[in-house]
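User: I'm new to structure prediction. If I give you an amino acid sequence, what do you actually give back? Let's try with this one:
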Amino acid sequence: MNTLKQEALTAIEQLPDTADIDAIMYKLYVIDKVRKGREAIEKGDMISVEDLARESDAW
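Assistant: Good question. You get back a string of structure tokens that encode the predicted 3D arrangement of the chain. For your 59 residues, that looks like this:
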């Protein structure tokens, strides 16, 4: 797996030269969320679909 810095640099390089700061920040935000999601899965920090459905029904 790439380092976070390398992953961010690669993502930014793939954006068009006309990308504004909002596009760059959004791309970095998505990278952060995906990395945190993968880490949670590796730790077993997740809930089943059934539990999620029950939680959403409570709203």
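You can read the tokens as a compact description of the fold. Here is one thing that stands out. DSSP finds three helices and no strands in the chain.
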